[in-house]
Write a structure and sequence with these properties.
Blueprint lengths: L11 H12 L6 H13 L5 H13 L9 H21 L10 H10 L6 H5 L2 H8 L12 H10 L13 H12 L8 H13 L7 H6 L10 E5 L4 H16 L3 E5 L23
Parallel strand pairs: 1-2
Helix pairs in contact: 2-3, 3-4, 4-8, 9-10
């Protein structure tokens, strides 16, 4: 989305600051507002992205033991950017925060980002029912760094990096993926229960699951163990296996107990094995 100019004279910043202040009445906004206004006054050609960065950084530098909730103020600024970008890319009113879940599934499946399994497993009626359980207010449970990490590493984007999926949709897609094979009589309730726990941050999932659930690539497991055989082919085949697992988001450990030790014989030649080296 192309950056637009936001002149200070347009009162855009003043209006936004007042809204932010109402959201966090426990914080002292006096110096924060003054710094942002002065910076914008001296840079009246600031783009929207530059204004948002100024709002975020000015909030982050005020985090202290006395006022730790500045991290949530910074998170709200960043969250509002996500809402706006997702709405523009998906074609709905940003004031709604979240758009159609079914349309999101269709769009990202057509792009090859989501697996076709989701649309095959769930009817449009079921997807619309699940859309109703999304609670946008739970986005405000994230600290700034938590939200930034989630958006940067885990939310589904287009191939060009455009924002499509939002935090609550990621949680719901995870629940839908994990409960896909459950019986149709109970899976909707299981999805609702799982979404509740995930979205309230009472429960989390393994990193590959958080990243790859519902998508057409990667896998959902964290940990793998590979046994390396005591042969040239075994050693190099293990290199390929380890690289493949790592590529798809898995962590891996290698068992080297089968590889002969240093000084062992090889094909009758005495003491020629170099063993395992760090």
């Amino acid at each position: 989305m192309e950056n637009t100019y936001v002149p200070y004279a347009s009162n855009h910043i003043n209006i936004y600051l007042e809204g932010l202040k109402e959201s966090f009445p426990e914080l002292d906004f006096t110096s924060y507002q003054e710094k942002v206004r002065q910076a914008a006054l001296h840079r009246q050609d600031m783009t929207e992205e530059q204004v948002n960065n100024l709002l975020v950084l000015s909030a982050l530098e005020r985090i202290s033991m006395e006022e730790p909730r500045w991290t949530y103020a910074a998170a709200k600024v960043y969250l509002d950017q996500l809402y706006k970008k997702a709405a523009a890319n998906r074609g709905y009113d940003a004031g709604k925060k979240y758009g159609s879940l079914y349309n999101l599934l269709q769009a990202l499946t057509d792009m090859g980002i989501y697996s076709e399994n989701l649309l095959q497993a769930y009817s449009k009626e079921e997807i619309n029912e699940l859309e109703q359980i999304i609670v946008p207010e739970r986005d405000h449970l994230f600290t700034y760094i938590g939200l930034l990490t989630l958006a940067d590493r885990y939310l589904a984007k287009s191939h060009s990096g455009d924002v499509y999926e939002l935090p609550q949709e990621r949680f719901l897609i995870i629940a839908m993926t994990l409960m896909m094979k459950e019986s149709k009589e109970k899976r909707i309730e299981l999805i609702k229960e799982s979404y509740w726990a995930l979205s309230n941050l009472y429960m989390t999932v393994a990193t590959p699951t958080l990243s790859n659930a519902g998508k057409s690539y990667g896998q959902l497991s964290s940990c793998f163990i590979d046994t390396i055989d005591d042969s040239l082919r075994g050693i190099y085949d293990s290199n390929t296996d380890i690289a493949t697992v790592s590529k798809n988001g898995g962590g891996i450990g290698a068992y080297l107990g089968k590889v002969r030790s240093r000084g062992s014989d090889i094909k009758g030649f005495k003491g020629v094995s170099s063993g395992v080296k760090e």
